[in-house]
Amino acid sequence: MILNTLQETTSRIALSICFAGFFAAGAIGEDNTTVRVFIFAGQSNMVGSDSRVDDIKRFPPFAGLEHAQQDVRFSYSIGRANKTNSDGWEDLQAVNNVVGPELSFARRVTRNISAPIAIIKCAAGGTHLGGDWNPDTPEGFKMYPLALDLIKSSLAELDRQKIAYRIEGFMWHQGENDMFNEQYMADYGKNLANFLARWRHDLGTPELKFYIGELCTKTIWGMDLRPRMYAISRGQKAVTSTDLLAEYIPTSHVGVEIGGGVGLHYHYGTLGQLEHGVNYADAYLRTIGRSETKTPRVLKSWPYQKGSTVKLFVLAGHRNMEGERAFVQQLETLRPELLSDNENVAFKYSIGGGYKNSNGWEPLGPAGYYDTFGPELSFAHVLKDKLDDNIAVAKFTHSGSQMNDWSPEGSVARSRHLYPEFIAFVRDSIKEMQEEGHKVKLAGIFYHVGENEMSMPSYRKAAATWLQSTVSKSRLDLELPALKWYVSQQPPTDHERVNSIDVTSQLEGIAAMDGNLIHIKAFDLPEQQKQLVLDTAGVLGLGELSAERYLQSIDE
Are 124 and 37 members of one domain? Predict the structure, then answer.
């Protein structure tokens, strides 16, 4: 009887996925009764390792996700040897006090569609696509047959309850462990293509859409194992570039857990998992043409008189220049005057390595993804209060980058090389202002040095050299030999592993030899809860300090 039920379930899935294809194309209109089933699978960063439900309250955009979502069905098997399994379908909520991406995914999706959704999750840390998840010869924890049984039994229960459903998407985040096995790493693209094909076959869903999550380059493995991470990403992209029903989902820009000791970590942690889920949700909503609509941020009128001079300030850097943990909701109590768009300052940006770009020049205001903002708000506020000049701000950041990605040489991970894009961004910003009829003065590049570099010995040792190379080449490429760079640095990590490398003195040394490089010691920012990463107050303080140092330099 069980076999017959599973066979009937497979047939039902095949029919339902055909409807899903028509629905995505708008061919059958709205269907608000059929349950849309999503599968979540992978290893530790799909499990939600090193996250904590109690931490959700620290991140205002995600408040409330600590509670069960009673309108979302949830079936799961999580873990390796000691698995935690649901008792059939349950209400969606955190399992074992761990925050997975399914929590924020479900809330985002249910706020944008009327149909009910259900989530089936099978994930275990430290598992391989080449072994555990191998559909042909599963080894180790044999995750593929486990996941297949979980999915089929969960759907069979919906059948028993006479609940109509269709499989809507498969979210996959895995790959870190395959990079430790030479053969698995080399074959990742081939294995992933086979993995997707087998799921479609075994579930009878030939048009099943897959969402393949990028491995997070902001973690420690994104630094010391970057050639191996790059190899996995190439395998993933090889599949998503040829399979029209597979999409590569960037995740390098999301938050990561801050660890003990030097602070570097392997996992997204609470904030990253919540953002991770939003990434998947947004990708799915785009697939069905139901993306969240947001009010366009456009300048009501061009803020500068024709023919006038505009001072252009370029902000650049990593997670704290991006504003990873600076939330708009906290401005309401700290600096409410910065919540409103400033129509007198034109603002252009590319953040998260191009994950979000402005629509040309916008009014200066909170514009980060996940309700975040960067130092540009307090920075421009100080300048406008002290200067009569026209000012514009252009911001280029990638919180998942390291300083060698910004250097002209880059690294073996060529897809992470930011220098060419950064220089093009600055050039384009100047050109666009000139085309508006302005003389443009590039007032300076305000760069906040890499936070991770302060914690990994080999990177801390090379940080000043990478910076000096970037500064020198930028002046050549922009044809501005006296271009000023304002380089801010937060307190370097205080730990026995790295204290022998005096990175502050090294940065001071290159500034002493370069009259147009101003070193800003951001050592007196508001007290921070975590090392490496600045909170809302810290990001505001960084902007103010950078502006004040600029004002001081023009008076010297």
Answer: yes
CA-wise closest residue to 331 among 323, 342, 339, 322: 339
pLDDT number for residue 295: 83
3-class SS shares of the chain: helix, strand, coil, % to 5: 40, 20, 40
- Tell me how far apart the alpha carbons of residues 373 and 105 are, in angstroms, rounded to a whole number: 22
Instruction: Quote the distance between the C-alpha of residue 185 and its chain's center.
Output: 23
Q: What is the pLDDT of residues 355-376, one digit of tens each?
A: 999 999 999 999 999 999 999 9
Q: Which residues contact 64 (CB under 8 A, 6 or more apart)?
A: 107
Domain boundary among 287, 321, 342: 287
**Domain check: are 243 and 333 in the same one?**
no
Tens of pLDDT, residue by residue over 87-117, are 999 999 999 999 999 999 999 999 999 999 9
CB 540 within 8 A of CB 334: yes
pLDDT tens column, 45-80:
999 999 999 999 999 999 999 999 999 999 999 999
Which phi and psi angles does 23 have, rounded to 5°?
Answer: -65, -45
Of 188, 156, 160, 214, nearest to 37 (Cα)? 156
Give Cβ neighbours of residue 512 (< 8 Å, ≥ 6 apart): none
Q: What is the extent of the structural domain holding 46?
A: 2-287
Tell me, yes or no, whether 299 lies in a domain: no
- Residue 469 domain-assigned? yes
3-state secondary structure of 519: strand
Number of domains in the chain: 2
Residue type, 459: Y
Band the pLDDT of 293: cuts 50, 70, 90: confident
Same domain? For 259 and 371 the reply is: no
The answer to whether residues 346 and 208 belong to one domain is no
- Structural domain contains residue 467: yes
**165: region left, alpha or beta (phi > 0 left; psi from -120 to 50 alpha):** beta
- Can you tell me the distance from the alpha carbon of 428 to that of 43, in angstroms, rounded to the nearest whole number? 41
pTM attached to this predicted model: 0.94
378-400 per-position pLDDT tens digit: 999 999 999 999 999 999 999 99
Distances (CA, A) of 368 to 249, 357, 372, 383, 420: 18, 9, 5, 21, 23
For residue 249, report the phi and psi dihedrals to the nearest 5 degrees.
Answer: -110, 110
